[in-house]
Amino acid sequence: MRKAYHEELDRIAESLVEMTHLAASAMSRATTALLDADVHLADSVITADAEIDSRRERIDLLSFDLLALQQPVATDLRVVVTSMRMSSDIERMGDLARHVAKVARLRYPESAVPAELRSTFREMGQVAELIVEKTGSVIAGRDIAAAREIEADDDAMDRLHRHLFEHVTSSEWPHDTETAVDITLLGRYYERFADHAVSVAERVVWIVTGEWGNEANGSHEDAEDDATGRAV
Amino acid sequence: MRKAYHEELDRIAESLVEMTHLAASAMSRATTALLDADVHLADSVITADAEIDSRRERIDLLSFDLLALQQPVATDLRVVVTSMRMSSDIERMGDLARHVAKVARLRYPESAVPAELRSTFREMGQVAELIVEKTGSVIAGRDIAAAREIEADDDAMDRLHRHLFEHVTSSEWPHDTETAVDITLLGRYYERFADHAVSVAERVVWIVTGEWGNEANGSHEDAEDDATGRAV
């Protein structure tokens, strides 16, 4: 019975890692679609989001079965419940990538991103891809050191996001308001994508150590807010 | 043993309902702080958010205890797991109200909201307050009819949000880019607040009926996106 139980847990962990790969791919392709004004690529991201959603549903079913049939306690219980939370986080990351793809599609045949911000968005796309692939490694290997790296990647995303924000709100902003609105929303999507990756990593750390890392859950966003002087 | 179990479930439900009252109050006061440029009221919302977070933590502890000690199955299991998800949704609603309060504080002594948008924001605040109070009724009474009403309230929020969006992106937008950015983010905070309330209501419906309502989980945002022609 214990063997079957651990096989079930392994299946859940594998599904979670799969989800991180799908989310990485989604955000990477959404960023390319955005920069290249590639409407077909944008459409493929939008369609593929259903794959991520269905993984989350499957993890829910596996977890419910485990809870009902195996009735885990202590750390095992923590693992199962936390896995369901992680799958919700990663599903949300997929949604955010889909939102990026939708902006790309909306602006076709133009790119939604002004020339002077292209390198910033390319970098945000790369950080997003890296951060969620690392999250997969953290889940697969219960790798606490990698979880700490993710915090540094998230700081990098915060800096890029802040740069975006400062540019859009500066007196030298050379584009129209509609572009400012698009960039504001896009920046928030990438920012929240990274936030969710940090949440997932923190949950793995909690399973392994029983601790929440440097900040209490939820105050991560506050730290950003205070750094930018505004709620972003 | 069954009696103790049902008392535990009742305590969880009561905590959830309490959270909805706190979230309603938070969003109502944040909206007032925003419209009146009331920095003290804004600060009180920001401080009080910790109350909402601590309720979520308590629900987690109660739920874990229940799962470990009572080992529920079937519908009971569904209720416990779903309660944890609902508490995360309501916690997030509290965070969104805090973000609104932060914008209010940032812009003090001005109001962040231009004159011609005051009535729109006042209405969004009222819809937000109503929708989360109704969510509390849905949880307390397993009230499916009220859950349907919430969908209508959410449609009302979508219309207000769309109005905001159209005004900000129109060629007649008479304010600076920084104001456009603030309004864009504020609109998204109210929008997501209502989305989370709908999620909570849908979860209660699922507990009671086993069904997800009119739309598959997650496609609610897509329906909005399609209506506005953009990802908002």
How would you characterize the overall build of this protein?
Chain A has 232 residues and is an all-alpha fold. Chain A contains seven helices and no strands. In chain A, helix 1 (2-36) packs antiparallel against helix 4, helix 4 (118-141) runs antiparallel to helix 5 (144-169) and helix 4 (118-141) runs parallel beside helix 6 (177-209). Chain A is elongated and about 65 Å long. Residues 215-219 of chain A have low confidence and may be disordered. The interface between A and B is large, with 42 and 43 residues.
Q: How is the topology of this model organized?
A:
Two copies of one chain form a homodimer.
Chain A: H1 2-36, H2 39-70, H3 74-107, H4 118-141, H5 144-169, H6 177-209, H7 219-228
Strand-residue proportion of chain A: under 5%
What's the average pLDDT of chain A?
A: 90
Q: Write down the overall geometry of chain A.
A: elongated
Number of strands of chain A: 0
**Rg of chain A (C-alpha, Å):** 19 Å
The quaternary structure here is: homodimer
Largest interface, Cβ cutoff 8 Å: A-B, 42 and 43 residues
- Helix/strand-derived category of chain A reads mainly alpha
List keywords for this structure.
elongated; mainly alpha; homodimer; 232 residues; 0% strand; 7 helices
Short description:
Two copies of one chain form a homodimer. Chain A contains seven helices and no strands. Chain A is 84% helix and 0% strand.
